[in-house]
Amino acid sequence: MSAAVDDVVVRALTADDLPDLERMEVALFGAAAWSPESLAAEIVGPGRWYVGATVQGELVGYAGLWFDGYDAQVMTVGTDERFQGRGLGRRMLENLLAHARSVGAAVVLLEVRVDNDAAIHLYESLGFERLGKRRAYYQPGNIDAWTMRLDLRGDGAA
Ligand SMILES: CC(C)(COP(=O)(O)OP(=O)(O)OC[C@H]1O[C@@H](n2cnc3c(N)ncnc32)[C@H](O)[C@@H]1OP(=O)(O)O)[C@@H](O)C(=O)NCCC(=O)NCCS
């Protein structure tokens, strides 16, 4: 609870970050974690924008966006448990939204587990609205997902 959060930097991810990403991915998402191969392909995939949050040089969070030429999709966001609740998730998502605006995305979409109160709170505080529910979207466990959308059209915010 007392970890420092000074010296936070949000920066682009590189292949050098993959060992840290793999460790955090398993710790945060367990059986639903992306494989190392998927992570490696994802951070350099077409239209992708992946950032990490460092605290005093240590990578402690990551987030990614996919822009397909019209819409953007939040692919993932995660903060190392030791640093959750200290504003890093918000910083990373704000970076993704700024990128989505800069490339002209009309809307930003995402899915989130219906039982993920922290993430839902964060998304709603950034302006996302619930669109609908996808039944048994997450495996294992048949967990439902909310689909959420942030409309950037006519949005003059920075
Ligand atoms: C969701 C997650 C990325 C948020 O990251 P974070 O760095 O803790 O986020 P922040 O510190 O910026 O907090 C964002 C908001 O969520 C709130 N929040 C954090 N933990 C919370 C909790 N357990 N319950 C409710 N709200 C919570 C914070 O209060 C904050 O809101 P506020 O600014 O109004 O106080 C983080 O909890 C996480 O990595 N979870 C595991 C992976 C995951 O579920 N990712 C999302 C997949 S869709």
UniProtKB/TrEMBL annotation:
Q: Name one GO cellular component term.
A: ribosome
Question: Which residues belong to the signal peptide in this entry?
Answer: none
List keywords of the entry alphabetically. Answer: Acyltransferase, Ribonucleoprotein, Ribosomal protein, Transferase
InterPro entries this protein is in? AcTrfase_RimI/Ard1, Acyl_CoA_acyltransferase, Bact_Acetyltransf, GNAT_dom
Domain named N-acetyltransferase: residues: 8-153
NCBIfam families, per database record? rimI (TIGR01575)
Q: What is this protein called?
A: Ribosomal protein S18-alanine N-acetyltransferase
Q: Which organism is it from?
A: Cellulomonas fengjieae
- Gene symbol here is rimI
